[in-house]
Amino acid sequence: MLDKTRKKSVVVIGGGTGIYPTLKGLKSYKDIDVTAIITMADSGGSTGRLRDEFGQLPVGDVRMALAALSAEVDNHDELLRELFLYRFARGAGLNGHNLGNLLLVALTDMLGSEVEAVKVASRILRVRGTVLPVTEDKVHIVATYDDGKEVEGEHDIDEPSSERHDHRIVQLRTKPEAQITQDAKRALSKADLIVLGPGDLYTSLLANCVVRGVPEAIQSSPAQFVFVTNLMTKQGQTHGMTAKDHIEEVLRYVGRAPDTVVVNTTPVPPELLERYAQAHQFPVEDDVSEVACNVVRADLLDTTPVVKKEGDVLQRSLVRGDAQKMGTVIYNLLQSKI
Q1: Rounded Cα–Cα distance for residues 319 and 108 (Å)
Q2: Residue 3 DSSP one-character state
Q3: What are the residues whose beta carbons fall under 8 Å from the beta carbon of 87, sequence distance 6 or more?
C-alpha cells in the first residue's frame, strides 16, 4: 500500500473522451488524490455552439472529466451521471446539446465564474477528485501546417478539410496567448505522477501544453512524467506518425521527455480496423524501443465498440481505453511496481 501519512497525487492532463477511462479507473483507488487539468480549446458540437452564444469557456471536456470522476455508490449516482451526459436528439435549438453542458453554462451565468461553476457541479456529482481548467483565458488553438497554411479552431483542426489530410502540423499555439491558472500550476508542482494522455495529440493533449506556464510547471515538477500513446493515428493530425514521433512532439512542446511511456498491446478488432481504414486512420506503430525511457506495454483496450449517441454530430473514436485496465497501470506506476 501507499504511504498512509499522505495521499499521493496523480494529475491527468488532456481533454475530450481520451482521458475519461483513465480518470474513471483512478477514482476507485481511495488512497490517492486525482486531479484533471482540462483543455479550454474545444470549439465543436454542443460546446462550440454554447461558446459562441454565451461567450464562456468551453464546457464539453470539463463535463466528461466530471462524469468520469463522479460517484458510483448506488443507482441514484448512476442515474445522475447519465443525466449529466444526456444528449438531446430532437427539439428546436436543443438537438445535439448535452444536458451537462447546459447545466455548466447555467451555473456560470448564476455564479459569474466558470471555475465556481465547475466546483458546484463537482459537489452535485460528488466527484472523487478535482477538475481544473488549464486556463481561464478565452482562446482558440491555431495549427500551422508544413505548407504554411494556418487553421484556427479546435473543431477545424480535429475534423480538417480534405486539403489538409496529407499535411503535417509543424506548429501549434493559442490565440490569443493564454496563461495557466494558479490552481493548475499548484497541482502540477505538488504532483507525484503527471499523466499526459491518451487523446488526440494536438487538439486534446498539446492544446494544454501551448498554454504559457504549463511546460515550465511540468519541467520543474518532481513528479514522474508519464505519456500514454494514442491507439490510432488521425488524418490531418498524426497521419503516418509512430509512437516515437508522438513522443518527440511531446518533448518539443513540453521541454521534458516522458519518464515513462505506456503503450497498448491489444490489437484492435479487424472489423473496426476496416472502418478506421476508410477514414485513413491506422494503429500507432510501436517503435518506442528506440526511445530512452521506461516503456510499459499493457492491454489497455476496451473491446466493447463505442456506440455513437443520437444527436451527436462530431466524429468519435470507435475504440477507447478500458477504465479498470488504465487505472491499474497508472496506479502501479505510482507505486513503482512496473
Answers
A1: 33
A2: -
A3: 46, 96, 97, 98, 99, 309, 310, 311, 312
pTM of the model: 0.92
Joined grid coordinates for residue 242: 509512430
Contact 66, 125 (CB under 8 A): yes
DSSP-derived secondary structure letter, 17: T
∠ CA 222-228-22 to the nearest 5 degrees?
A: 90
Note the pLDDT tens digit of each residue in 207-254.
Answer: 999 999 999 999 999 999 999 999 999 988 999 999 999 999 999 999
Domain that holds residue 315: 8-334
pLDDT at 197 over 90: yes
DSSP three-state, residue 162: helix
Q: Is residue 21 part of a domain?
A: yes
| CATH number of the domain within which 283 lies | 3.40.50.10680
Domain count, the chain: 1
Residue 69 belongs to what H/E stretch?
A: helix 60-69
> Is residue 104 situated within a structural domain?
yes
Grid cell locating 291: 526511445
